[in-house]
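Hey, can you fold this?
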Amino acid sequence: MEQLTRREVLKGLGAASLGAAAWLTLRGAMDASPNPQRKRVLRIAHLTDIHVAPEGVSVRGLIDCLKTVHEMPDRPNLILNGGDFVSDVFAQNEQRARVLFDLWTRLIKEHCQIPIRHCIGNHDVWGWDKSRSGCTGDEPKYGKKWAMEALGLEKPYYSFEQAGWKFIVLDGTFSHGNGYKARLDDEQFEWLKAELGRTPATMPVLVLSHMPIVSACALFDGENEKSGDWVVPGAWVHIDARRIVELFYQHKNVKLCLSGHIHLFDRVEYNGVAYICDGAVSGGWWRGNYHQTPPGWGLVDLYDDGSFEHEYRSFPYPAPTGG
């Protein structure tokens, strides 16, 4: 698909802001490969920040998004769920959490035939805001346990190999008072070091996280400059990004890091690694665009030479309802 001009992009963004089913594709100009003999080995749909709930239009939106992915003539072989798949259980009681997790499970069972791998987002962690959820912390499914059960995960972070690529799925949500910070604890960081250390240097690596490790769009999520200096909260971007970036620098086979969380679309190239924040299926929490980014999902093609191509795609987004 050819790259859109700036005028075409702005036109598409304007249509999406009206709540219409605007069809928009944004493709990175840096995806061209000098290797004409390369072969695509895997096509991935990255769906993040879905925020499904029984109220409003999110159920219809998720179904329409999954339908769009499944009906592609050359449809993806794998879906990566980037987290925040429910909205939300962080500050909800047990009854509400059960409604949301059951809804997600039913929708995926009924509308998704493509294999799916999952990442846990901050809104998927049950009860950490104890003042609002009423949790004590002693509940059997407290914290990430319920999300892990709903997603069929043994651990909140893991790795797997497919089509000659290594995939590393991180868990970056850690409690901080009644909130959270984006980071890895020492145990997970040591696991990440070991995982990269035992991966052959010839095997390309894709890292999936909910919160971005490196991001430019986080500067614009809120009024981060109002103090007179840029101040980006540690709940928005990994507060331990420095040591993660330094680790990746030692492993040149780390090619791509996918994330969500900010609901904005950007791509940052740093030390030979592409960091893509892939917007949000929910857009502005099912109310249309979020700032300049329309609702959408990432289409990623992986190749046998360690290169990739990425597009940010829209879908028939339902018109928001209510106030």
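Oh, and this one too while you're at it.
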Amino acid sequence: MPKLHQGRDYIGVGVGGIIVNDEHKILLLLRNKNPEKGCWSIPGGRVEFGEDVEDAIKREVKEELNISVEIVRLLRVTNHILEDKKVHWLSPAFELKYKSGELMNCEPDSHSTFKWFSLDSLPANITITTRLALESFRKTAA
């Protein structure tokens, strides 16, 4: 039996998180992998079998950036469908608050760098899920 691939052979579940610093800047990572290679994205990744989405985003942020976060709120759930690439992910996005740890790129194969951006000077090349999460964040930010 051939190996099935999450997001291609069946709908995948991935999480993402908007981390805001004290200067009200958003942390984005530059993707080295498809889908959307070369675009900026919020931290996140795949939900593992049997894992709650809330635990998944905390784990993914720790694995990618070496920091611990707490969930502030769920921002939205996106159907991330790239028909031309035959990719479909269901992606909850959360607002996150930094708790502890020294920020570093722990997955250089996945992300070439990370950078803080102000909401009014975001790069043009952001992923679909990042764009939609940021739209929801802006609508509901106090």
